[in-house]
Specification:
With about 700 residues, the protein is an alpha/beta fold. The protein is built from 21 helices and 27 strands. Strands 4-2-6-1-7-8-9 form a seven-stranded parallel sheet, sandwiched between helices. The chain has a seven-stranded mixed sheet with strand order 15-23-22-21-18-16-17, with helices on both faces. Strand 21, helix 16 and strand 22 form a beta-alpha-beta unit. Helix 1 crosses helix 7 and helix 5 packs parallel to helix 6. The longest helix has 22 residues. It starts with a strand and ends with a helix.
């Protein structure tokens, strides 16, 4: 049985009475995650147990209890404490759990989160309780909109009070949601009254989170044995699956995990995946903070920021609200000949945040396109200046810069592009001086790499357009790290040769290295910088290539021939810019600065412990990015052992995606110290199993 979350359009609306009715009608357990007002009453948990007569073990203990009858945030503050969203975990129960919230959806849970954030984290479908009286249509529709804006599933509405057919009809018509019960007021609330009211609540369908959804392109219709199932709304362009898949003809995407995955395997092609051998994908239904929840309710701690993009946590309310507000005002406009406030504001903030000399912003779509723009700008810059002989590029062995053709050429030694090698331009690759904690050979490796650079520049310096590097950390190569001193030495040599320097900060930007950008941390200002991934906090695809005034001015001319004839349909998309501006607001808070320091502190404490164990080698950390190598063979990227290691972590509720023998942690900034410690505990456990098996 799937658990449900009972919330209301307001406080004092009858949530506890409805929760008791659901416990009785559906045979579920009860949990009140946070109780306030205990100074004046025994608490809702005791009330529900009294009204339903269920055993004590079916009433799960609250995570927080406070005396004052205030919001959880205010009640906690009065007692000198605070509520931590990460502390809430749905109790395990075969019956399912009725979870009762505190107040309405937008009641403060802590200084940053609301009750709706708790609902999103737990991933339960929602029963919304409303008082059946004047004003209920307005309050109920507003609450429905708030839930849907967060992507939450609404099981239905329960109206509490004298039945009013007009209210029920209006809510169902305008809210596109079912009123599953109308409960009349009773003079006396006791166990007998709850039993009578519970009889008015229909039995739950087999998949309560899914089978009672209305709207969004789906309508309810009777399935086998009269149970509701989902069918596509007529005329909305959806087609049935062919007769060869009869098990999929009775329901659609909003069905069980098995149904969703079956349709996925019929139609989708996943990135960096060998479909012939890959396990079934996990169907994720929601995210909140550092956690992802699949549609069956299982939670995963996202320790890789969903491919390094999520900065402040999933479904962060500040960014979500900014995107929603922008979507209602302007969703898209051509950026050739037009501009808009979100783009202007974002470009200004980028120029202010980056080192002096980086102030001209060209927006594109993702990390690969930001690199493509940088390479094209560097090449055309020299042509516009009349130095057409500068057509060579430099990069580093192991570097990864994206999957468009210029980016592939720059990262051609990464091992991903063998089928396209004959189509790529030539890029000279230099040795990369990867280092780790306590590395006695780092200076020798740096000297060897610089000697190769010197030899190249002595021979081809006047023919070289630019060098591109992932500063401080090579990501896809296995979180290989270098010292700031090496980047400063690069800058000196390239300046002497007149060669442009491109920093690919698609991954390292926006706090990942512990500073705002790797260029700030290393004290090196490149000529061009590529930004993406965390730019929007992980909400929307957007990238930026930022360059120096000298590069921009080389494209100015009365004729069009010197213009940069490059663009994207969604260049400077207002929604992406709005998300990025909201993410910037969060980045600039003292709380985020403190969290960056905390994450690095936990990394260094636990890495020091791993460094004493024989199973681990090459311990390293730069800011919020930590990595360590498993000793032994058989851990190649995409290999069986690597997949087994991923599965090991997933089975423990951890999203970690090792890069061959490299286990790395790159978490959202909202991740707590306790959550990080749980990840390191699992890494130690994995080493005991997988390193021993590889010997």
């Amino acid at each position: 049985m799937t658990s449900v979350f009972v919330t209301g359009t307001d406080t004092g609306i009858g949530k506890t009475l409805v929760a008791a009715c659901l416990v009785r009608a559906w045979g579920m357990d009860y949990w009140k995650p946070v109780q306030t007002g205990l100074a004046d009453e025994s608490g809702d948990a005791a009330t529900v147990r009294h009204l339903t007569g269920i055993a004590a073990e079916r009433v799960h203990a609250s995570t927080y209890e406070f005396q004052a009858p205030l919001s959880p945030a205010a009640a906690a503050a009065l007692e000198g404490g605070r509520v931590d969203l990460a502390a809430f975990e749905l109790p395990a129960s075969e019956r399912g759990v009725v979870v009762e919230g505190a107040g309405g959806l937008l009641v403060p849970l802590d200084e940053r989160h609301l009750i709706i954030d708790l609902i999103a984290q737990l991933g339960c479908p929602v029963v919304l309780v409303a008082r059946s009286g004047l004003g209920t249509i307005n309050h109920t529709l507003l609450s429905i909109d708030a839930l849907r804006a967060r992507g939450l599933t609404i099981l239905g509405v329960v109206l509490n009070g004298a039945p009013n057919a007009g209210n029920k009809t209006a809510i169902e018509a305008h809210g596109d949601v079912e009123v599953i019960a109308e409960l009349p007021w009773v003079d006396r609330v006791d166990e007998a009254a709850i039993a009578e009211l519970a009889s008015l609540i229909p039995p739950p369908p087999p998949h309560p989170a899914l089978s009672r959804i209305r709207g969004r392109g789906f309508e309810r219709e009777a399935g086998e044995n009269g149970n509701p199932s989902l069918a596509p709304a007529r005329g909305r362009g959806l087609r049935r699956v062919g007769e060869a898949e009869p098990s999929l003809t009775r329901s659609w995407v909003r069905g069980s995990a098995a149904e969703l995955i079956a349709l996925d395997k019929l139609h989708l092609w996943h990135p960096f995946t060998q479909a012939a051998t890959a396990p079934d994908p996990i169907a994720i239904g929601s995210g909140s903070g550092s956690w992802l929840t699949d549609i069956d309710g299982r939670r995963y701690l996202d320790l890789i920021s969903s491919w390094w993009v999520t900065l402040h946590g999933h479904a962060h309310p500040v960014i979500a609200a900014a995107v929603a507000q922008q979507a209602a005002q302007l969703e898209q406009v051509i950026f050739a000949g037009f501009t808009h406030e979100p783009a202007v504001r974002l470009a200004t903030r980028l120029a202010q945040a980056l080192p002096d000399g980086l102030d001209r912003v060209f927006f594109s779509d993702d990390g690969s396109t930001s690199v493509e723009v940088a390479l094209k700008l560097a090449y055309q810059y020299w042509r516009n200046r009349g130095e057409k002989q500068r057509n060579r590029f430099l990069a580093f062995e192991g570097g990864y810069h994206g999957d468009t053709f210029g980016a592939m050429a720059a990262g051609s030694t990464s091992g991903f592009y063998e089928p396209f090698r004959d189509l790529l331009i030539h890029v000279e690759h230099l040795p990369y001086p990867a280092t780790c904690d306590g590395d006695p050979e780092v200076e020798a490796k740096e000297a060897a790499a610089l000697a190769r650079l010197d030899a190249w520049l002595n021979r081809f310096g006047q023919e070289t357009a630019a060098l591109i590097v992932e500063p401080l950390v090579q990501g896809a190569a296995g979180m290989r790290m270098c010292r700031p001193e090496f980047l400063r030495a690069l800058r000196e040599r390239l300046d002497a040769a007149g060669v442009l320097l491109i920093f690919d900060e698609v991954m390292t930007g926006f706090g990942r290295t512990g500073a705002s950008f790797a260029c700030v941390k290393s004290g090196v200002t490149p000529d061009l910088i590529c930004l993406s991934k965390g730019l929007t906090g992980g909400f929307l695809p957007l990238s930026a290539t930022v360059c120096s005034p000298a590069i921009y001015e080389a494209f100015l001319d009365p004729g069009f021939a010197k213009a940069f004839a490059h663009g994207h349909s969604f260049t400077a998309n207002p929604l992406g810019c709005a998300a990025a501006n909201a993410s910037f607001d969060l980045l600039e808070t003292p709380e985020t600065t403190a969290r960056l320091a905390m994450i690095e502190g936990v990394h260094r404490r636990r890495l020091a412990q791993l460094g004493t164990r024989p199973e681990f080698i090459e311990v390293r950390c730069t800011g919020t990015i930590a990595a360590v190598n498993l000793r032994g063979e058989g851990h190649g990227y995409g290999g069986t052992a690597n997949r087994d290691l991923q599965r090991f972590f997933l089975d423990r509720g951890l999203l970690l995606r090792p890069l061959g023998p490299v286990i790395y942690i790159l978490p959202p900034y909202c991740t707590s110290a306790a959550e990080l410690d749980s990840a390191y505990d699992a890494i130690e456990e994995a080493a005991e199993i997988f390193v021993r098996e590889s010997r």
